[in-house]
Amino acid sequence: MAIVKFSTLLLLFTISQYCVADVLRTARQQGPASIFTLGNGEQCQGSDRSTGGVCLLRNQCNTQGGKAIGYCGVFGTCCSLNACDIRTNTKVAVFINPPLDKESSGLECSYNIEIANNNVCQMRIDFETFNLAPPTTVEPVENVTQRPGYMCKNDIFRVSNLHGNSESLPSLCGDNSGQHMYVRVNASINDRSVRMDFKLADRISQPNLPQATWKIKVTQLECFNTLGKYRDGILDAITAALPATPFTTTADRDEYLIAPPGCLQYYPDRAGFFESFNYNRGAGPYIANMAYATCFKRSSDVCGIKLTAASFNMAYHDDSNLYVDTDCKANPFVQGQPQSEDYIFIPEAQTADGLRGSKFCGNSAADAIIASTPPGPLYVYFHSDNLVTKDVPEAGYRFSYNVLNNCYVK
User: I need a surface site. Which of 155, 315, 320, 344 has the fewest CB within 10 A?
Assistant: First the structure.
């Protein structure tokens, strides 16, 4: 009888906390925030309703080098991390460029994101705003048809896993607002922090370079652990309103965003857009020496994906055919010669007019509807070399996509 009474009281206490939390929760704080999650690291807005930050306790904000721009929850401070050399371990962190002018250019700015708990398996880095100097190559030389590819030489953004990530993460520059990337982490092997570095060129000696700006959201994503699988029913209702413990996890909320292994980018929605880095509204150019996979969610009812190019303009190896497969990659017997090997690989691809191929380059995907129906994961793979050919544009691509549950191209 005592156990029944205790359970009833505990359930009533839990329900009352939900009600109190709902009353105290502001419109900009919908979601997991409650009176128990003080400084929960979720996104918030400052008092001006336009500047974004993360919800932290005031001492957390000060410790991480942030600036209080408003309030959130009951005791939380909306904290803007618009400084350099910041260290944080919040689930969500938003980093904004410090005030920059010609006198402060030539800046090196670093952010260290430490793993919040052992359930964290990935970090998703969203470039809400990302404008750096574009990639560059050497000036054309008369009678020389080829030169090195477009590289990040003035402004450079790098992500590194401080404990030896085996995956190669590309350096970025140019216009990448709206893009994102994933970083894999593993706390069980002391893989406990990720570092983001900006290195900016001096604007005094190069006044024509654009001003650098960024706003980057980093979200720590949790995978299910053994205990997480048992959070259901009344235990879930009770623990969801309590402070974080080894029995509570946000893995159920994060599962939608968890990327398959080997994917630099991941789009879990059933429809959307994706584009090459520094697509720059079709002006490009894409960055040299890239090699990465962009992946899409494949649920049980999905048989493939439909891709429609809003723009597609890449270099090519040979123009004697239709800019597919062997036209996009040099034969191994002649690899010693400088020849373009830029392409996007789309497995088991077929266009609406019947063209089949896997590697697309030149303008082969322009104005085409492409269905990809592989037996395994849904992905495309982008490869760029370190070579620019005279009069051959390298603007890049932008696709719309829709996952298919009927794999007949219309």
Answer: 320
